[in-house]
UniProtKB/TrEMBL annotation:
Belongs to the phosphatidylethanolamine-binding protein family. The keyword ATP-binding does not apply. PROSITE patterns: PBP. Pfam families: PBP. It comes from Clunio marinus. This is CLUMA_CG004377, isoform A. InterPro entries: PEBP, PEBP-like_sf, PEBP_euk, Phosphatidylethanolamine-bd_CS. SUPFAM superfamilies: PEBP-like (SSF49777).
Length: 222
C-alpha cells in the first residue's frame, strides 16, 4: 500500500471514530432529554468528555454514581478542539425531582476562561458541589457541558451568580445567550438519594483526627 493510501485510510478511520463518538453523545443526550429540558438543539459533532473522580470512577453517558463517590471535584479532560477559551458547566435540571422540576436548574459547578484544555487555568465562578438528591426524588441527571467562549469573560462585570443561594433556578440557555457560548462537548451521570452513606468517610476521618490529637497530647504531656 502506498504512503498516500495509508494516509487516506488513517484519515478515514479517524473521521469514522470521531463521528461515532459524536453520534453516541448526541444519542445519549437525546435519550436523557437534555434536549429540550435545558437545551434547544445539539450540534452534530458534540464531543465526549473524560471525567474521572478521585475514586477512580468515570462519568459515562448516564451511568449511575453514588453521592459518596462524587464528593470532590473530578478531573475533566477533552481532546483539544482548537485554541481559545472554554467554559465548563455542571448542572442538575431535576430539582427537586425530574417529574416536578420547579427549581430547575441547580448549578453545581462553573469554570470559565479555561485556556485550551487546561482546566486548572480557568476561573471558578461557582465552586464544585457533588450530587445530593433529596430523599424520595428519584434519579437526578448531573450534566457536564463544555462551551467554546467567543472571548474572555470579565468576571467583575459579568454579573454571574456565584453564591450558595444563587445555585437554584439558573438557566443553561441564559448562560449561553448572555456570554455567546457555543456547545462543543458534554457528558452526564445519574444519582439518587443515598442516606447518610456519604457521611461515613467524613465521620471516620473526624474520629481518627480526634484520636490522633489525644495521642499526641498525651505524648507531649509526658
Amino acid at each position: 500500500m502506498s504512503l498516500r493510501k495509508r494516509l487516506l485510510f488513517a484519515f478515514t478511520l479517524f473521521v469514522a471514530i470521531y463521528r461515532s463518538e459524536a453520534s453516541e453523545v448526541n444519542d445519549k443526550f437525546t435519550e436523557f432529554e437534555v434536549v429540550p429540558d435545558i437545551l434547544d438543539t445539539l450540534p452534530d459533532d458534540l464531543k465526549s468528555l473524560n471525567i474521572t473522580y478521585e475514586t477512580g470512577l468515570k462519568v459515562s453517558l448516564g451511568n449511575e454514581l453514588k453521592p459518596s463517590e462524587v464528593e470532590k471535584a473530578p478531573t475533566v479532560g477533552w481532546n483539544l478542539i482548537d485554541g481559545g477559551y472554554y467554559a465548563l458547566l455542571m448542572t442538575d435540571p431535576d430539582a427537586p425531582s425530574r417529574v416536578n422540576a420547579t427549581r430547575r436548574e441547580i448549578r453545581h459547578w462553573l469554570v470559565v476562561n479555561i485556556v485550551a484544555n487546561n482546566l486548572t487555568s480557568g476561573e471558578e465562578v461557582v465552586s464544585y458541589r457533588g450530587s445530593g438528591p433529596p430523599e424520595g426524588t428519584g434519579l437526578h441527571r448531573y450534566i457536564f457541558l463544555l462551551f467554546k467562549q467567543n472571548s474572555t469573560i470579565a468576571l467583575d462585570t459579568a454579573n454571574l451568580p456565584n453564591s450558595e443561594t444563587d445555585r437554584a433556578l439558573t438557566s443553561t440557555r441564559n448562560l449561553m445567550g448572555n456570554f455567546t457560548l457555543t456547545l462543543v462537548g458534554g457528558d452526564l451521570f445519574q444519582a439518587q438519594y443515598e442516606g447518610n452513606a456519604g457521611m461515613i468517610s467524613t465521620n471516620i476521618s473526624l474520629i481518627f483526627g480526634l484520636v490522633l490529637a489525644q495521642i499526641l497530647y498525651t505524648f507531649y504531656e509526658k
